User: Fold this.
Amino acid sequence: MDVWSSLMDGFATALTPMNLLFAVIGVLLGTAVGVLPGLGPAMTVALLLPVTAALEPTSAFIMFAGIYYGGMFGGSTTSILLNTPGESSSVVTAIEGNKMAKAGRAAQALATAAIGSFIAGTIGTALLAVFAPIVVQFAVSLGAPSYFAIMILALLAVTAVLGSSRLRGFASLALGLAIGLVGIDSVTGQRRLTFGQPLLVDGLDIVVVAVAIFAVGEALWVAAHLRRTPLHVIPVGRPWMGKKDWQRSWKPWLRGTAFGFPFGALPAGGAEIPTFLSYVTEKRLSKHPEEFGKGAIEGVAGPEAANNAAAAGTLTPMLALGLPTNATAAVMLAAFTSYGIQPGPQLFSSQGPLVWALIASLFIGNFLLLLINLPLAPVWAKLLQLPRPYLYAGILFFATLGAYSVNLQAFDLVILLVLGALGFMMRRFGLPVLPLILGVILGPRIEGQLRKTLQLSAGDPAGLFSEPIAIVVYIIVAIILAWPFIYKLIRRNRPMPATVIPGNSGATVPREAGGVSHGSHRADGTADGDGDG
Amino acid sequence: MTIVVGYVPTPEGEAALTQAIAEAKKSNDTLLVINSSKGDALVDNRYAQEPDIQSIEERLADHGIQHIIKQPVRGHDAAAEVLDAADENDASLIVIGLRRRSPVGKLIMGSVSQRILLEADCPVLAVKAE
Assistant:
């Protein structure tokens, strides 16, 4: 089988000592940023982009893959031991996980999270290896109009479905698209949004934008909210599980995987929806429904499996279509571009060895993560005692260094500060960061497809509807956009009881996918008694 | 008059508290318990949590001592908080717990106890953990 031999070649590349070393560095870094709330894999990859410019692309991506999966593993540790989700995708884990920890079952909660993540990650990666080539086969038959439609769908879905406020989501998307427009028009050569500034003609470097929004914005936000009542980590020994825990965990793991992968692969992906669905399902199916809300192991096992499977799922459209659906995938896509690799359906044929080494390294990274997380979770929790000024000073240093080193232009530092201030204001006013980053990264590519379509149809807008798939996608887009109104109509005609949401004051509704989770800053204040004197 | 005690949830802190209770009983003074954190880390094991504070509250009430428990999180270090509290309340005595520090550790981290000992305007009673 073709997939099998390619994958084995991938393993051969990924298992060379050098690449293995990068995988180890990646998973260690990933776990660290996953444990620390506010830092995410997206920010870490963005910070490392300039640093890794000198590396082989394969090694760099193996490291990024480790960071991505590591973030998912690490997030659960903080959720369980501190009730502060380290990652937005671990918000649901905190509901039951922290209750378990408080009841003295932290070891079991950590174990089921780590083993569940491993199993789901492995199955998810296997599905990725099988499905991505199939998606590619389908995707190469798509023309520019269909592509344009699918990208529009991805942007709208991420903006409208995730997050609490559509208006804020679209505001953020508009900002991102505007930033993406800066530079020379590729067809007519006109200058757009350059304000007569010659240094803006090349456009804004995506690395600078990502570092500014994720790293500088978050650092400023934390600096503005530095004083907060410290918490205690719930003490825990080495994670382990009894026979009964295994019996209660394995089904939620598999069901969580089944939820996670497809949702991650969909354009409206992200890990929040499947983790939440998995939680609700486990609550309904559980033989111990009375334990939910008091620390049911199923409520940790399912969502944790779901978020890791979603992480694998997210990579399917990213690798097969060049379509990122969460912040980390978006930054990884930017990394492809900065290495001069064209993302899209042709990626598998043009960069086959790299892609397969990346997929193989996902398997390896998953295994490494199980090794370093299962015995060491309490050690990772010690990272939380780090005074944050030191941490963020280091991040700002790296951000500045990185932004400058991309083009060796002092002007980039000005952009870094301006966009960093923008990132801060977005956090201040609750604008999600993900639509902005997607807008910046996908905006120019969407425009390219739109231009191509219109050139093919000689400027006739009807050309946008010339392919059946495009029309189907537009119908889906229309439904997504009109959904709130339809929903309201249904509600008015047939008054329904309020939807049941698992009550937990500690975990807020996730704001953005996979990246900076400033939601958590606000979340825990309400959960654990503030005792300022 | 007031007695100020710097409390941390460690053996040294407990020793200081025990000693402070004895002193407060002797002189019938108000006991001001200070447990502070800079608040710059997400987790600070030296910042007492709710159950801890409650048990201290009960203990002090059992002894019939007038007391105030303060947990300032203002970005100042523990020494500054204790000294501030002593100044504001015109304290007659400060009670602190001492722990053993290696010279190198002291060089790097500084010493809260040393600062209190040197800068306080009132007598300081330093006790060691049992």
